[in-house]
Amino acid sequence: MSRILINNIDWLITMDPDRRIIKNGAIAIDDDRIAAIGTTKDVGANFSAEKIIDATGKLAIPGLIDTHVHSTQQLGRGLADGCDIAVHLLQRLYGYESEVMVDDAYWAALCCQLEMIRAGTTCFIDPGSYFPEQTAKATGVSGMRGIVARTAVDVHQTSIGALPEKMFRETRQEAVEKAEKVVRELNGLHDGRVRAWFSLRVLVACSDELIRDVKAKADELGVGIVMHACESRDEVVASRVQYGMQDVERMAHLGAIGPNMVLIHMGWASPKELVLCMRHDLKISCSPSCGYRLAFGSMEFGRFPEMLELGVTVSLGSDGAMSSNYLDIVREMFLASGGAKAQRLDPSIMPPETVLEMATIHGAKAALWFDEIGSLEKGKKADIAMFETRKPEWRPILNPLSNLVYASRGGADTVVCNGCVLLENGVIQTFDEASALQEAQVRGSRIANSSDLMKKAQPKWPVIE
User: Fold this and answer.
1) Listing from the earlier edge strand, what are the strands of the sheet with 64-66?
2) How far apart are CA 107 and CA 439, in angstroms?
3) 57 plus 73 within the same structural domain
4) Of 318, 333, 366, at which residue does a domain stop?
5) Pairing of β 283-286 and β 261-265
6) Which of 16, 169, 191, 235 to pair with 299, CA 20 to 30 A apart?
């Protein structure tokens, strides 16, 4: 850690309570926190820096927060395209995950974080896997901050099908004990950049007793719970068939509901569930790219603008390489904004300001980390994403927020997390990118073959070698 001065920022989007936008701005960083923020003239004159970053031509925003990232699925990109939800989950995703080994999980997580860093993301929430230790290890190397969790399920035969025998085969007691062990061992790791939560990854595969136990443990340990909920029509029907009610209604019925819960997708929430979200301060992760790629209808049938108007925290998530096929919150902002506009035939709804709040402030609140991240303010953690604006798609810059959401192609130029430079002028600083990409290719190909999914990923057109 050191004293860093970022000066000459063309556009500094603070996301502070006044939503100030500072032209020719500067940020002074002392160790892992913002020591001062303002104009270059004011900040630069009063701060002695060991490193100076000239941000001429750049736009700076708080580091983006991705609240839905399946880290260990990164090596399965392309293996789950073009199939309905039951096949997607039970055959493709879980078929791939059944073949992932410990070292694979580490390299998958590191490559996942490489993609996120390049997109300007500094913090993520992983909704659960059987390798949270490897995701935490990768986070230590990459320099990002994130939340990891261990999958907990105890119902192996569901109304959407049977879970694979190679995984997901634990009793309620085993699932809770192993998840609690992860929370106790990983929470606060790497100078506090890693936090550990509980995961109820597939609610239809969680018994009532497991849900109650996990909620009680999370409350006892002061951590959050992340889960997929009201994801698709198929899954809400499965919940109604198996339990007599939809996901959020079921948790409320069990008394296992509260503000430390992140509900992913929620495109098929019932009117009653919208009220429950407001009443219990539930946090939502909207994942538009996954909804479009998997034909969930989540943006067409979801009520995300209404949730926001009701005061519900709605953040943005990418999902994973096997579901949305990319991890880029700038692209998610465009899809969230455009999807809401198209659904209501209203071009004024979900403007750039709203979706940028979802990607920063709401993401921080969902991660239960808003006291330290989500905005650029003195005393908060130095998590910053900068974008190069001297490009044709950025000019002219009349409204920088509009250009970022509607016009830019994504891709950050420089990224700082916890006061450490992770990406500078397009070059990764914390690990060997070429080696990570090579590992991804070799390991991804091996898993595709061993899972017998390689044939599912081939182009429909002839390939000439």
Assistant:
1) 64-66, 121-125, 145-151, 194-202, 225-229, 261-265, 283-286, 313-316
2) 7
3) no
4) 366
5) parallel
6) 16
Q: Please confirm whether the linkage preceding 392 is cis (ω < 30° from 0).
A: no
The predicted pLDDT at position 1 comes to: 59
Residues 199/227, Cβ–Cβ less than 8 Å: yes
Burial of 420 (0-12, 13-18, 19+ CB in 10 A): buried
Parallel, antiparallel, or unpaired for β 283-286 and 313-316? parallel
Rounded average pLDDT over 368-379: 98
Residue range(s) defining the domain that contains residue 34? 3-61+377-428
> Do 268 and 297 lie in a common domain?
yes
Q: How far apart are alpha carbons 465 and 166 in whole angstroms?
A: 36
| pLDDT tens sequence across 322-355 | 999 999 999 999 999 999 999 999 999 999 999 9
The pLDDT assigned to 159 comes to 73
The residue with tokens 């600083």 is: 429
Beta bridge partners of 409: none
DSSP state of 93: I
| Cα distance between residue 110 and residue 223, in whole Å | 24
CA 394 to the chain's CA centroid: 26
Residue 385 lies in a domain: yes
Tell how far CA 337 is from the center of its chain: 17
∠ CA 86-88-94, rounded to 5°: 100
CA distances for 460 relative to 267, 444, 463, angstroms? 31, 20, 9
31: left (phi over 0), alpha (psi -120 to 50) or beta: left
If asked whether residues 43 and 167 sit together in one domain, one would say: no
What contacts 24+ positions apart, CB below 8 Å, involve 243-247?
243/204, 243/208, 246/270, 246/273, 247/203, 247/204, 247/273
Mean pLDDT of all residues in the chain?
96
Return the residue matching tokens 């399920």. Answer: 153
95-117 per-residue burial string, b: 16 or more CB within 10 A, e: under 16: bbbbbbeeebbbbbbbbbbbbbb
Q: Please spell the DSSP secondary structure of 383-428, one letter per residue.
A: -EEEEE--SGGG-S-S-HHHIIIII-----SEEEETTEEEEETTEE
C-alpha–C-alpha distance, residues 50 and 87, integer Å: 54
